[in-house]
Amino acid sequence: MSTIFKLLIIAVLIGAAGAAGYQPAKEYWRERNKITWETAEIESGDITRYVNSTGTIQPVLSVSIGSFVSGPIVELNVDFNDEVKKGDVLARVDPRLFKANVDRDEATLLAREADLERVEAQLQQSLNNYLRGKRLRGANMDFMSDREMDALVFDVKSLQAQRRLAKASILQAKASLETSQANLNYCEVTSPVDGIVINRLINPGQTLAAQFQTPELFVVAPDLREKVHVFASVDEADIGLIQTAKESDKPVAFTVDAHPDEVFDGEIEQIRYSSTETQNVVTYPVVIAAKNPDLKLLPGMTASISFEVDSTKDVPKIPNAALRFFPEELRYVRKDDQYLIDGSTWRSKPKTDEEREQNSNLTATENAEAQQKKNQRHVWIVDGERLKAVEIRTGLMENKFTEMAHGDLDVGDKLVTGIKD
After folding, report:
1. How confident is the model at residue 397 (pLDDT cuts 50, 70, 90)?
2. 20 to 30 A Cα–Cα from 49, which one of 113, 240, 291, 375?
3. What is the pLDDT of residue 151?
């Protein structure tokens, strides 16, 4: 009996100890298995929206310099990267043949002028004969017959025609001389502008053949230190933002691989209407003007461009990680907000093929309204042991933050961004 009594007492004591420790143990396990949420605060600051693109640096103007005449190159005065002034002789074609043509045409001109003097002398003699015959006929009609007078008259007219022909021959000889002189001058290939030689396509001793097509000898870029152009290709979805940025004189920033730690500034100079379609993607060329005093920006460099298209000052900023967070299980969410998990009313991607088909058949008005509703989002805050959804309307978006245009939240409130491991 005493043994049974002892066992009963021991059982009672164990039960009492278990009852006393149940609640603390329950609390311990609940705290141990409690979910810890990663959070981020709503901040206050500026939001700037950018459109990114790539482009190629090119000179504002590239002047191609060629040769009008043919012949071997006997002199080459410039090389790559040389700075030249307007009128500088860049190269010289062998002028001997062209100098001989000038000498020939000068001699021809002298011969034509001498021939004119001969004709004028004969004409003067013929006029004198005509005047003497006229005086004799006036004195007595029998001194000169009609045949003799006609011979004198037509001799004068013939020599007058020869004089006009001689004068025309002189003009022709002068034109030929001017042509030969111009060809001789073309033997000197000169620069028409001030600039930098960015390409040289000839070597000393090379023979030019310019009969059918003017060969390109040099490419000179004027004002390369003053300004260069960056040609960017912007997607059609963003070109409207670029147009607004140009009207507002928004700045443009870009970098090049040659100077990755330096940011270059520019401005939108032109938005061209000539579109390009590549694999069903339509892009428009945008021309950016940038200064280049140190010649760090060289033709052909690839630029990574950021267009500032819009900005706001001192607004509530929501971390983008909070906008991307979405609780996957109903047990984490309070009952009033569980319909968001079931229906995913704020998710941008349709869940089913039927929803995809419905979205593809929207009218233009419905599609525009749907785009406007994309700014209606939900973020999540910790409400006791569950999560609570708060509806907001977003504004401008940048890499890490998005503007909160409207919502029942304040700066400093903590938003859930994930679950801690």
Report:
1. confident
2. 291
3. 84
- Domain residue ranges of the chain, discontinuous segments joined by +: 37-46+316-419, 51-60+223-312, 63-93+187-222, 95-185
180-182-184-187 Cα dihedral, nearest 10 degrees: -140
Q: Are 252 and 264 in contact (CB under 8 A)?
A: no
Architecture per CATH, domain 51-60+223-312, reads as Beta Barrel (2.40)
Residue 353: is its pLDDT beyond 60? no
Work out the angle at residue 218's Cα, subtended by the Cα atoms of residues 214 and 221, and round it to the nearest 5 degrees: 125
pLDDT at residue 265 greater than cutoff 50: yes
Q: How many other C-beta atoms are found inside a 10 Å radius of the C-beta of residue 144?
A: 19
Helix %, strand %, coil % of the chain (to 5): 40, 35, 25
Residue of 327, 319, 340 lying closest to 382 (CA atoms): 327
Q: Cα–Cα distance between 232 and 307 in angstroms, integer?
A: 10
Cα distance between the two ends of the chain = 56
pLDDT at res. 268:
95
pLDDT confidence tier of residue 49, bands split at 50, 70 and 90: confident
Q: Which CATH class is domain 63-93+187-222?
A: mainly beta
Coil vs helix vs strand at 60 = coil
- Length of the chain measured in residues: 421
Cα 180 to Cα 13, 90, 97, 200, 213: the distances in Å are 130, 21, 10, 28, 20
Q: What count of other Cβ atoms lies within 10 Å of the Cβ of residue 158? A: 13
Answer yes or no: same fold for 51-60+223-312 and 63-93+187-222.
no
Amino acid at 77: N
Q: b/e per residue, 179-210, with b = 16+ CB within 10 A?
A: ebbebbebbbbbbeeebbbbebebeeeeebee
Amino acid at 311: S
Summarised one tens digit per residue, pLDDT across range 174-197 is 999 999 999 999 999 999 999 999
- Find all residues with CB under 8 Å of 246, minimum gap 6, and list them: 268, 271
Mean pLDDT of 157-176: 93
pLDDT digits (tens, 9 = 90+) for 196-253: 999 998 888 888 877 667 688 899 999 899 999 999 999 999 999 999 999 999 999 9
Mean pLDDT of the chain: 84
